[in-house]
Amino acid sequence: MIEYSERFEVIVIGAGHAGCEAALASARMGCKTLLLTMNKETIAQMSCNPAIGGLAKGHLVREIDALGGEMGFVTDKTYIQFKTLNKKKGPAVWSSRAQCDRVAYKMAMRNSLETQPNLVLKQGNVEEILIENYKVKGVLTSIGTVYYANAVILTTGTFLNGLIHIGLVNFPSGRAGEFPSLRVSDKLKAIGFEVGRLKTGTPPRIDGKTVDFSKTIPQSGDENFRPFSLRTREIEKKDHLCYLTYTNEATHKLILSNLDRSPLYSGLIKGVGPRYCPSIEDKVVKFKEKPRHQIFLEPEGQNTTEYYVNGFSTSLPEDVQLNALRTVPGLENVEMTRPGYAIEYDFFPPIQLKSNLETKLVENLFFAGQINGTSGYEEAAAQGVMAGINAVLKLRKKEPFILDRSEAYIGVLIDDLVTKGTLEPYRMFTSRAEHRLILREDNADERLLGYGHKYGLISDVLCKEFKDRKIEVEEEKLRLKKIFVPLGSFGNLLEENSNGKRVSLAYALKMPEITYEELLKIDQVPEDLSQIVKEKVEIEIKYDGYIKRELKEIEKFKKLENMVIPEEFDYSNLKGFKREAKEKLMKIKPRSIGQASRISGVSPGDIAVLMVYLKQFGSKSGLFSDKTTT
Known about the structure:
630 residues, alpha+beta, FAD/NAD(P)-binding domain, Elongation Factor Tu (Ef-tu), domain 3, Arc Repressor Mutant, subunit A, 4 domains, six-stranded antiparallel sheet, 25 strands
């Protein structure tokens, strides 16, 4: 073995979306950080679709940005189409999504890593996490080099014992064309970690030169949009078209006749796949009543003719994939450049983690990304930035950074993982958040920028801009409350029989028919108001009553969240609990009454008994406390 001469404070293993954010956060907080990746050419690789954001995922990207993360900023640099989804619905579910240039994205992220002070980027294959007395001390690579560190963050994606399936053929791989990691999970399992098996997949890629786009439906992006990152000053307007087409009866018939050659249906694949992103085989089998399924053709970048076939994830044999694609309108003469495939990989059920993403078994060892059972770039990046921040805080003996469910989708994500666990790839949805009207995209800065600044990840300049913006919003809301106009000013948008009634512009804006743009027809809006400010003003006025009601619900929620359970509290001798409840409490060791109440198998009655015991424990030790008073 060769011991590397320099010692690091934090080592991050894996340079996917979680690893990049973890390493940048750690380095930007002043810790000497090493990022180890098996291949420097695939840093921040978009293994699946060439896009960032989407339903609920766009919320995560803006939250990552407000905490000082990089994903949104790099997306703004390399996007080729931008679109806001769910715009016809309420602002709670508006979600931004950007098609990106796959190659440009990973090059831009690599540049961010290579130019970051305190961060060393090296290529190396980690074979073992070095642990002594259940405390991490470093890593060992396949060529015998030892790197020592005080904390290690493991972000291994699909590489742990990765196995690719294409038809009835399978072979070890972390991603197509890349080696798997074959020893790390076995070593961790040997010291007591529970290991599970999951499966995910990706569609084929096709040559755009062989597509008849006249038979498809062009899908354009938004002309006006708000970039993901607060750091983005100017953004070049680009709109590379995507295209919509559909499968049909011929497609389905061909797939059904070849299920015996599918590893998913022949029993070769043992891992559990993603429920909310099913393969085309699953769609055809499980939704037989549907005569067709959507297929989106998405460009891989500005300087390539390759397209990603969104909606056609598959592990069927290569010949079946090609023949099935050729039944789709526009793809009759298509050529595949890469077949789709399924991949099985090891993951670690996340109830083995604390809320700061540190493992319960090994001190100063953190997990982030798909290793915790999640799917998606955005979920991984969110965990990465949180793991990076918390690793540094742990080394500095500071309180952990834990977002609760009322503060951020990131809080919902991590709480779901460490409290409920997951037996299938976890994906974020707006429906998972109880307080989604408060957790909007437009107010991610208001919710989280203060934390980013506190930890040194957000500059003073961005903080001042946010404060100035907040003042502008409040001043404009006040101005609209003071200006009164005849109700008839809005013409046939409102009832014609207004009887000369006068209302404030703020009152008018509350009405569903009136938008901020409608106000411009009768009002002199300050010329220097940005689009961001106008959007915030409209949302805050129009949904004021709902927002106030939601904030009251959050107050109730926080009472239970603030009732902290001491780490040393012993559940083993408690009486009056169901066996399942007691076992779950002992295994998960919730940090608060609120978290305990969300554990599957723990009833409201169990919570009432637990609170009695905790008060007795607190009166004896003085340790049971309310966060609001400590």
